[in-house]
Queue: 4 jobs
Job 1
Amino acid sequence: MSRFWKIALIVVAVIVVGGIGFRLLHKPAAEEGAQGQHRGQHKGQGEGQADAAGQDKDKDAAPVPVTVEPVVKQDVPVYLTALGTVQALNTVTVNPQISGQMLSINFKEGQEVKKGDLLAQIDPRPFQAAYDQAVGKQQMDEAQLATAQSTLKRNDALVAKGYVAQLDMDTYRNNVANLAASVAADKAAVRAAKVNLDYTRIISPIDGVAGIRQVDPGNVVVTTTNLVTLTQIHPIYVMFNLPEQNLEAVRSASGGGDPLEVLALDRADAHTIADDGQLNVVDNQIDTTTGTFKLRSVFQNAKGDLWPGQFVNVRLKVRTVAGGLVIPAQAVQRGPDGDYVYLLQQDQTVKMQPVKVANEVGDSHVMITSGLALNDQVVTEGQFRLKPGSKVKALKPGEVPAAPTSAEMDKAKKNAKQQGGGGRRGG
């Protein structure tokens, strides 16, 4: 083959290879663009279908059953709260007034005793002897006084006749006066001996509860011996402190003449221990170290529910708000922007309504100062399933939702099936 034909064949081969390469580089890119466009259209249609399905789901979702209660109007007492300490009205440490041997203890520890009850008995024999001796001395001196008085009387009639000297009459008179003084001293000694004899019987000076006795029978006691401590609990005091910013409110409320009401509750505020308390005293100074002032209330404590040394929560009623708006406390929710409630709308949906809570009303309600109106319906149970705009089925307190009908169940199954099928197509 000549050299010319060899060059021609090489040129033809290069042209064919170049054409094939051009086809391979450009045809797949065009097809990929077409396929990408097709996938984009498919994805857009899928998202549109998903959004439509979500809207249909919210629209067709069953109403959430919730419990609602209306906003009511009532007179609301306003309380100031504090931690209080119960103190006995009177506390008496019983000590013997004389020394002697303790014969008997006549009370039981923890027993309520009355004023005048016998608590213990000291051996009375030495004191009885001293009393008898004092009585005998008095009787002897009284007899001598009577003799001296008789002598004075007889000689007084003879002075005028000159049978008795005036000097002797002075002696008779002085003797009578001396014996009269002795009788007076004897009477005082008899009274002192009687007092000591009475002190052998240790009696209760107050009505109260006996504590643990410190002396057993048979021991010799002295005037510094502590026999027992009595505490009076009917009535009883409750002491508590309030911040100084409440002083003006307390003074204004107590200036009306009627004593302010005080309640005593247990440490957990679970129940009221006593509700018959009255404010007794407001202290005359503010403690500069704590910024508080002291108050004292008195309770009749007829059943003995309050006990000395007990800690209680105190509620002092300072005023009453007429016609306050009240809702159950469980309706109030706490959010990042403050308190709110779920308010029922006319279309049976709910919205988040901000409110301001003034104070508690009893153990289960609160008073609202803003955000609600009388007869508004607020959700009290089922809030955790709600969001703004949720459709609800309002129930009364204690009411149970009715069982779904067969039509509702079929509809729910159909919706679930459609949602499940759409999910598989989308995958």
Job 2
Amino acid sequence: MNHATSAVRLTIAAASIALTISSLGWLPATTATAAPASPQIGAIGALPMVKKVKTKITKQPKSATIGRYGTKTSTTFSVKAKGTKLHYTWQYQAGAGADWVKIPGATKKSYTAKASSWANGTSFRVRVKGKKGTVTSKAATLTVLSPTNTPAADAMGQFGWTGITQGVDLSAWQYGISMPAVTGWVGADGFVMLRNASGSRPANTAYTDLCTGAKTSSGAVPVTKDCAYAGLADAAAGRRLGHYWFNGWIAAMDTTASQAFAKGYTPGQSATQFVAWLLADGNYTTSSTDPLVLDIESGSAWTKTVDGKKKTLTLRAWKPSEALVFLNTVRQLLTSQGYQANLYVYMGANNASSKTSAGSYVWRDVAAITRLWVASWGTNNGRIPTSAPKTGPWSTWSIWQYTANARIAGSGMGGLDADIARADAWTPKS
């Protein structure tokens, strides 16, 4: 055999096999090794090039005002920025000229500041770092409002009123309060509103006396005298007084056959008891024109065992017709004995301005014979709200409870209900 010829034949055969395999996609068409081609921009399968964006703040954080107490005690500072792979670092400044300090854990677009953590006047800013630079936001200032000691002056300055005085309203819940601190806070022309009694507990309900700590019961009728009333009235000597009765359980709201909650008690009986305790205290005389107030509010849910079954009822606020019975009875009882009756109702601003389906004010008839002590707290921060309260059919309020978060230094108490009054608040409505 000719070896040269055989070699040629083998070469041709191998090439033929290679071509066949290549055509089936198993091997490259050539056995030669080629250098890999450089990737081309825009070629299919090539990695895209990331364009880095310059770091820039597009929306700065804004200064904010919150209260030390109340419903608005925190705020959120936020920033908007552009850039690539942004990182945020919030800082605070305790006062003008102080160093900026990093806030641990504050690494997001926004930061929530709470009044419990930060002092009034603290400033905040954020540093935003990206692939193309680091920028710092403008500073935003946090204002933290504390309760005022001068609500009467504040209200006159804010709304342009005159003759406004200030006061607080107290009950057994404030038993042990330092009355010298209170009388000092309200001032020589100030006032103290006192709870005479409450009908909020059903009959024959055990409770703990807030003044003595002793176990006791509401007894056969659903009313209890406020254990701190007499002592607080005496201790408020020299300040104007007001007296209120918290509306309570009456027959009309007791759906049990045995009247297990109300025991048949009526608004008229409530009025009779209110007047008896008012006069027995001794602070109310024939020359007194103190506000005599029916506190119209809903109360708690109570559960009693009735005929072997548990029954739960919730104390609702009295209706206008029920309030009129109480108020007219109080006036008749007092005037028949030579006393005056400066009649009031207390309620929230929304209730005072509520209307019937026909569009008339619900409390129109009550407003005709009473003055209004209205509760309207705003954010309840211990300061006069920015808007005056709604008063419905009353032309105006006579006493305004503006907060439940007044703070009186030395009183021994935390938040207190505080009020302002108009100059004619102690004049009976004609």
Job 3
Amino acid sequence: MSTIFIKSLCRSKKKPSCTLPSLRWDRIFLLSITIAMIVVFFLILFRSGDDIAATEEFIAPSLVSYSDYFESRQNWSFNHKRIRERFVKGKTFYEILAGYGLSALHIIRIDEAIRPFFNMSKTRPGQIVDIWLNKKSGKVEKISLHLSPEKTLPIIRNGDDFLPSLTSPLKITIPTAISGGVSNSFYQSAIDRGIPSEVIMEIADILAWDIDFLVDIRPGDTFQVVLNRYYRQGKCIGHGKVLAIRFVNQKRVHESFYFTDSKGRSGYYDRKGRSLRKAFLKSPLRYSRISSYFSSRRFHPILKIYRPHHDIDYAAPTGTPVESVARGRISFIGWKSGYGRYIRIRHNHRYQTGYGHFSKFAKGLKKGSRVRQGDVIGYVGSSGLSTGPHLDFSVSERGRFVDPLRIKSPPAFRLDRADRKRFNELVVQMEEVWQKYHTS
């Protein structure tokens, strides 16, 4: 009524006398409504936030100490039962959840909730899902979907809603020393010592500047490796960075230590702080064998004549990736008579390398293209004059062909004097790890 009365007064001839009070009352009314809405909004927000936190993180607003925190977690675990399921071929996520009394509507809501994180149609046999049941009601209150050893997707029940939150379970990192000897091949010997295949390939890449694992390895060679292993709940769940390597190849000791300098650059260095990243890789292929060596007089299997073979032939399956052994610019790419599909790379004023018999070139390459060391430039084939799939690899120095296996490449760079103290301390630590392993 007061508002109507004020408006009626404002319509009268005495407008100046009632304009200011009218505006004051309108402002007070709008301000009151706004404050009330903000208070209601935050009450709802804090209440829903407490519900989620108390369910997912087991922390209630009243908890003020770690004792309360662990007691709350213990109580939650005591009042709930965990059942672990594994996906098998032909069994869907829907069927698993339906077996615990969840309705079709609930399962649809769960699927919609986790869709931004994971597509349930892509579950694989053996994948784990944990179902948490309330011991009193028997209802599902939490679902934990294990996406990988590093990631778990908990889905928390909040009434009829299901709230996902991607987490990374805690893991323990333990540096581990592994040593062994080469009996037949380094790969098999390392596998026998429990080194995963991906770590073996990483070791070969680290030492690729000094050891050609295709031809240099001999029975009796020895290796010592320090690497990080990840553990969760007492089980090894994976491997991390290789920290140090000592490889004795044909009585020559090759060492590498992983180090990050003061400029934030990480890499592998020898004992003297020299980078293991050389100007040239020892081999343009990772999986192959040498079928023909550099020679001044070789019998050509197709032409049936003796002539110089200023290349190395690496026999490998068709499609095997071929890498540039150093950074440079492509000076020729195309068909070159007996070499078939051929690439020549000019690295500097001194060196050029050639690669022949490709099945195809890597996409996007052309004359003048720049390539980096380790870039894939093509794939093994049998184009041109060839008796089977292989790579013809050559190196020329100042226009004269040289044996690629005899090139001694200098280090790319070495550590600054300011970083040497920390690096030397790291070397001592790795020595202690190796020594402890041998004496234990």
Job 4
Amino acid sequence: MINKALIFALLLSGLTLSGQEGKYFFTRSGHIEYTLGGNWSGTKSVWFDDYGMLVHTLTQSTTTISLAGITTTNTEKKLEIRRGKEIWVIDLLSKTGTKTDIGCQTESGRSMTLGKSDEELHHMEREVITGMGATITGYETFLGKKCLMFIWGTTRFSQYKGIPLKSEIAQSGILSMLETATVFEENITIPTSKFEVPGDIEFQEGVGIQDLLNEIEGSGKIQKGNDSGMPPGITFGRFHEATKNLSIPGFPYFMSDDSEGIYLTSFAKSETEQIIIFMENESRFYELAGGGEGMTVENSFSLDGHDAAYIRITQEDDGTPVNSRSLVVRLPEYKAVMYMITTDPMTQSGIEALFRQIRL
């Protein structure tokens, strides 16, 4: 979970290494076994080939989180298969999954890194890490490998050749999620069967971060600008400080942005799993909370004295089926509407608990 979020961030920043379609790691193939600790327990197995263009990740875990007086326990058996420009995320317990096109990220990385030497690519790795706001703290030897250490938000990493071998999320004493490699085999032969997609799974088309950002720039459910053309009644800096440190199990902070009156902060578990918080001028509340094509208002209610709506999103503007959720809250004291969109079907109580962490 944690290392996939990092790979996703580096992808969007252009760190896919040179090759016919791009390379995600500095080593041709490998097998890694992780143990999970902190608020979650279990194992993760990763097999990769062709410099990370082919990846098999199996996670079996149990997570226990106490948030806002509510304790939740979640058991997961998840398989991710990456093959070049496509990724399949499969829930092996429910026999359902998503298939997502990540070609945009792959092509962007290839064009930026094609033909560069290993030394140049290692230099680029450091530039990307610092460019996304992380702090490099040095090197350590782990499992006999020289690992680059850095801190990104509330997460610490020890990374070897683009592959995190240790990572830890720690937030305000609420959340601690550890991922530690116990086995790392490098440049080995991986059977092609590792990258086959199971045939007994019901798939939907997945929504990647690029799809959501495209909607911000385009029209539809999330529109660029607003009726009044005015930003919210608070500064972007205040919004950023209030949203960047939320404790969202398994979703590290990714980025914040201010674009023509729309503020956003995003948290990413992987290429296909994100939670994004938006703030716009108050006038947009009535449009968003009214639902529309592909949007069903499940509940209109009062959240801590504020008008709110819990919405099920079933399709994108082009008709692609999705199963996302949104909480929309009117904040007249800030001349603003704030809304969260989750690519997972989060419950109303779950998304409310996240919202209540925000202290404007």
